[in-house]
Design brief:
The chain is α+β, with helices and mostly antiparallel strands and about 270 residues long. It is built from 7 helices and 13 strands.
Length: about 270
């Protein structure tokens, strides 16, 4: 990358960083940087992730996005995207998330993989992925965009760490081979009322394929998947905007439940 390209990466990374710190969403970066490539966007993401690590945080895994094939077709993309999960993003099952700590939160049910060992491409197969998984957990991901009104193109999302926000994991680990994850159905309740349904097949037809894609995508010098990492499969239904004082519970067939609460405050969605 040229010196001018590096300067652009730093400047755009700083804009996204300040948006989160100041809790003030910014206009899409693709509006002012129309020639921003996907490689540039991942460089911006990596810059801010590295900044967090240098400040004492730790990478705990990855989250996948755009894993729905119909969604990919609508957006004109041919593969998922990914962001990094940082240790301070994790919330205990049933705990309350202050609404004012986020900008434009939305919730979505996902399947979380707990890695038993490293998984490094190229050439990773679904069988390789299955044998590397220590177990699966029900999960609620709280996605959040630093881009105003979620007016995002693919490069905006990638640069913004794939809209990663918070992660809530259930408390029961199930062996990945004990359940056909393609058929693992779910029901999302908001404040006790059913709201969304879905199944594992919504993620590339099989959530394990998402893990395989990611392992083959994270090639050196990128950080690969490591034992102990958490990997989120990708959304299994539409994103649901959060309101202050909402309570969300997801019930997965065979995998258990997971719950998150939101406090009152100024979250906007």
């Amino acid at each position: 990358m040229s010196d001018q390209g590096r300067t652009t990466v730093v400047e755009l990374a700083d804009r996204l960083w300040r948006a989160e710190v100041d809790r003030t969403p910014i206009d899409p970066i693709t509006e002012t940087q129309a020639d921003l490539t996907l490689a540039d966007a991942y460089a911006i993401q990596a810059y801010n992730v590295r900044r967090r690590v240098e400040a004492g945080r730790a990478i705990r895994g990855c989250r996948l996005g755009r894993t729905s094939q119909p969604r990919q077709e609508i957006l004109g993309v041919t593969e998922p995207d990914f962001g990094m999960l940082i240790d301070d993003m994790f919330v205990e099952d049933g705990d309350e998330v202050p609404a004012e700590s986020l900008l434009q939160p939305r919730v979505v049910a996902e399947i979380a993989f707990v890695m038993a060992r490293d998984l490094t491409g190229p050439g990773v197969t679904t069988v390789d992925a299955l044998t590397a998984i220590g177990g699966v957990l029900p999960a609620i991901e709280i996605v959040d965009s630093r881009i105003a009104d979620w007016r995002v193109q693919l490069a905006d999302t990638v640069a913004d760490n794939a809209s990663a926000g918070r992660v809530v994991l259930g408390s029961r680990i199930t062996p990945a081979t004990a359940v056909d994850l393609r058929l693992a159905g779910l029901l999302l309740h908001r404040n006790g009322s059913p709201l969304e349904s879905g199944a594992g097949a919504a993620a590339l037809g099989n959530p394990v394929r998402c893990l395989t894609w990611l392992a083959n995508r994270l090639l050196p010098p990128q950080r690969g998947l490591r034992g102990g990492d958490i990997v989120l499969s990708g959304p299994l239904h539409r994103l649901v905007p959060v309101r202050p004082n909402d309570v969300y519970e997801v019930e997965f067939a065979h995998l258990g439940t997971v719950t998150v609460r939101f406090g009152g405050g100024g979250a906007a969605a």
